[in-house]
Each structure stands twice: as C-alpha cells, then as structure tokens.
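S., here's the first fold you wanted:
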Amino acid sequence: MEDEHVVWFRDPHNVIKNMLSNPDFHLEFDYAPFREEDANGQRRWGNFMSGDWAWNQADIIAEDPQTEGSMFVPIILGSDKTTVSVATGQNDYYPLYLSIGNVHNNVRRAHRNAVLPIAFLSMPKTDKKYSSDPKFVKFRRQLFHSSLSMYGNAN
C-alpha cells in the first residue's frame, strides 16, 4: 500500500472540444434533446438525446436566461478492468473512457473516435490472501477515488 501508483490522463475539455468539432460526426450528432414517435404514435428511444433525462436537463438549462444559445453536452464516462502483462509484471489498470451524448449510438459502437480513453487508473497488486482484507479493500477504493479526484483537479 506504500508503493507509488501512476495515473495517466488527458484533459477532458480538449477531448470534448475535439469531439464537438469533429466533422465526421456532422450527420450523426444531435444538437438538442428530442422526442420521437413511430407511425403508431409509440415513443421511440434510439440515441442518448432521445431519452427523458436529456430532455429534462435541457428544460432546467433553458430556465436560466444566461444559458441562451448554449448547447447541452452530456458527458458519458465508463471504466473496465484490463490487465497489462508485457514488461509490467501483470498489472491491473482501469481505463477511463469518455464520450458525449450528442453523438449517435452507432458512431460510438463503431469506434469512430466517439469513445476515447482519457485516463488509466492504477490498481494495486496484492497476494490473494490479502485481497479481501478490509484495510486493503478500503485502500483500493480510496486509491481509485483519489485518482479520479486528482484527474479532475488537474484541469
């Protein structure tokens, strides 16, 4: 628990600006939340901006006159565990991915620069006998959250 743990990250503001200015997303990008119905009048949900949450957030933003002319850009974060064993001795990392809700789902799934890694959060190694130890579990959780906090404060 006293080892040094490295957190790699890139500025999320720059990543988001690049996504917003990417001309490849031009025809697959929603500038505002929307509601859509099929021919039978049934509500259809397809992309992030067609959901109720996006619609409700836009209503809240619209109540503030200082936000006139602005665009709602929901930020989507995700993480999963990956193991890197080449030249590192089997280390676990948690890549943190960022996307924006304005980009259509098919673009996100097609890996067309709509989901980008913005951080690699280091996870401590331990022997199997200590992996359930309450002190180690607490330390691992604190390391994860402090890594996210450090990343967020770097901007």
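And the second, which I think is the more interesting of the pair:
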Amino acid sequence: MKPSALSTHVLDTAAGIPAEGMAIELWRMEPEPRRLVRTITNADGRTDAPLLPPETFAPGRYELRFEAGPYFAARGADPGYLGTVVLNVGLREGQGHYHVPLLLSPWSYSTYRGS
C-alpha cells in the first residue's frame, strides 16, 4: 500500500503569482471537529511541511480552510466576496499523496486533486 499524505499550494490567479502569506487551517471533522494545523504559505504559495505527513495520516473527512479575504486585503486588493474558502475532502488510506491546490482570485476559486 502507498503511504498517504496531504499537501496544498495556493496560486493567486488575479495577480499571476503564488499566494504568499495566506493562512491555512486543517481540521479533522470526525468524530468531532478539531483543528490539527494552522500554517502560513511561503513565497512559493506552499506550506513548508505537509499538512498531514505519512506518519500522522489517518483516513477520514477533513476541511482545509484558506483565509482568502485577509490575504487579498493585506495585498491592498478588494477581497471581493471571498472570506474563508472551505474545502471538505475525504481521504482514504493507501491512495498515495493527496495534493489539493487552490487557484483563486477575489471573485472565484477552483481546485482539483493534484500530484
């Protein structure tokens, strides 16, 4: 079985740059919601360490919470209507590396399972 892990990165598609300085939280949603990680993206729009490395990975439902509104406000941009972007994901054992990129502007966002 492949070891599983979770990572992310954020791209500011309005400016065409990595989203440096964005706060991200990872929550485990079961059996009760519990925050596991709070981190800030680096100059590459990535976290310095995986959100869930293989040694702490557990299957289940998780939420990634990206603080998009404060990120745009700190850059002097109108945050539009985005505040916190919440992605609810289900992670299974043996599926390898889960990478969840976020592409966003003040008006929209998209995501996918990356590699």
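Why I say that: The mean pLDDT is 94. Residues 100 and 112 are 6 Å apart (CA to CA).

Talk tomorrow,
H.
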